[in-house]
Specification:
Layout lengths: L9 E8 L3 H19 L4 E5 L4 H7 L5 H9 L2 E6 L15 H8 L4 E7 L17 E7 L12 E3 L2 E3 L6 H20 L5 E6 L5 H14 L6 E6 H10 L6 E4 L1 H14 L7 E5 L4 E5 L16 H17 L3 H18 L15 H14 L5
Parallel strand pairs: 1-2, 1-3, 3-12, 5-10, 8-9, 8-10
Antiparallel strand pairs: 4-5, 4-11, 6-7, 11-12
Helix pairs in contact: 1-9, 1-10, 1-11, 5-6, 7-8, 9-10, 10-11
The structure holds nicotinamide-adenine-dinucleotide.
Nicotinamide-adenine-dinucleotide binds next to loops.
Length: about 375
């Protein structure tokens, strides 16, 4: 269990990881600290932990038990990105401590906001796609991913299977429905949709049935169900119809990258992995080996993930100054892109890590504390 109840400061396990992970982590921490200073928030104490593909190459383990224990004991985990395509275990798959952390800490709700930032380049021309604000919840401890490392493989046949439990689905849907309710209180439509493939798989008929059972306790929420293939279509055709989407692990993995594309690219998409006792915050992107060391990494997703962490700490520890710092940081990112001339490399522009960080830092000083 995280241990801040016994301490004054808030402890953050920092896991920068591989590739561009450390490059985006550094500015995100500096900006987060400054936002907290401005709102009079608590001082965060950071402990940097070694894990990832380079760690595996050096030590033979991607994340030691000691590192896992330290991450588990912190009040929150801030995560860069881990894994390198050419660093693989003997069974041929990549190391992925982020998946181990999700399973072992039961971080069942992968929260992937799809919020476009006015002024940032986005791919869809329709003006309604310039103001998207919906959230995809990806179940992160079950589904197809339970098969990871356990699949049956013969020279002629492979088998990897879905696993969905009643308890896992109930806590997932309760989380999504509560989020729908909180968003509705702030003006969102209050619709929560279960995304599945229930016409074909019994697993998803079960999943959908549990969704509607749990939704009965939320009469104020418009509970719906969509097929995953139709959802993929609508993510491109009319993504503005969505409010909260909740889905299985593998479906969520795929759909959330489509969500990142709607925001402009991987470097714009933040995320949080939330459980009943722990929270881990990381950009949706990976280690981007193709741009590592070039100063081209877009830090926006990491900065917004840090803002999500502050928001979560504010809520779970009842620290309004943390929530205010989250809000300030997000508004600073929005203000940095608002003039429309800040174009990250990945979106076809010239702005690298430093230029984007500097813009956000300037706004962080200039903005009033209240929106
Ligand atoms: N959570 C994680 O740690 C995580 C997630 C996904 C992939 N990975 C790992 O990362 C490695 C690379 O995976 P991939 O290439 O499929 O995905 P990736 O997200 O690393 O890169 C996909 C593309 O997006 C670009 N990109 C990603 N983040 C960017 C940023 N912040 N700024 C600018 N451009 C950015 C990359 O340059 C690349 O062209 C693999 O080893 C994979 O296993 C880790």
């Amino acid at each position: 269990m995280p241990n801040s109840a016994h301490k004054n400061s808030i402890s953050i396990a920092v896991m920068p990881g591989d590739g561009i992970g450390p490059e985006v982590m550094k500015p995100a921490i500096a900006l987060m600290d400054r936002a907290l200073e401005r709102t009079g928030g608590p001082k965060l104490s950071y402990e940097e932990l070694d894990a990832g593909a380079e760690c595996y190459r050096r030590t033979g383990t991607p994340m030691s038990e000691e590192v896992f224990e330290k991450a588990a004991a912190a009040d929150a985990i801030l995560f860069g990105a881990m894994g390198l395509p050419d660093v693989r275990r003997p069974d041929g798959i990549e190391i992925a401590p982020q998946l181990d952390l999700r399973f072992r800490l039961e971080l069942f709700a992968g929260v992937r906001p799809v919020r476009t930032i006015p002024g940032a380049p986005t791919p869809l021309a329709d003006p309604r796609a310039k103001n998207l604000d919906f959230v995809l919840i990806r179940e992160s401890t079950e589904g197809l991913f339970t098969s990871r490392g356990k699949g049956e493989v013969t020279p002629d046949y492979v088998r990897e299977t879905w696993e969905i439990t009643r308890a896992g689905s109930e806590r997932l849907f309760d989380f999504a429905l509560q989020l729908g309710r909180r968003r509705k209180a702030k003006g969102s439509p209050g619709s929560v949709a279960c995304v599945d493939k229930s016409g074909v798989f019994r697993a998803f008929a079960f999943f959908r049935q549990i969704f509607f059972e749990r939704a009965k306790a939320f009469p104020d929420i418009d509970a719906r169900a969509f097929n995953v293939d139709a959802t993929a279509l609508d993510l491109i055709r009319r993504p503005w119809i969505f409010d909260v989407l909740v889905t299985e692990n593998q479906f969520g993995d795929i759909l959330s990258d489509a969500g990142a594309a709607l925001m402009g690219g991987m470097g714009m998409a933040p995320s949080a992995d939330i459980g009943l006792t722990h929270g881990l915050f990381q950009p949706c992107h990976g280690t981007a080996p193709d741009i590592v060391g070039m100063g081209k990494a877009n830090p926006t997703a990491m900065i917004l993930s840090a803002a999500m962490m502050l928001d979560w700490l504010g809520e779970t520890k009842q620290l309004p100054s943390c929530g205010a710092a989250a809000d300030l940081l997000q508004r600073a990112v929005d203000a940095a892109f608002a003039p429309g001339d800040l174009r990250p490399f990945e979106l076809g522009g010239e702005a690298g890590t430093q230029a984007i960080t500097d813009r956000v830092a300037t706004q962080l000083e200039a903005l009033p504390l209240e929106a």
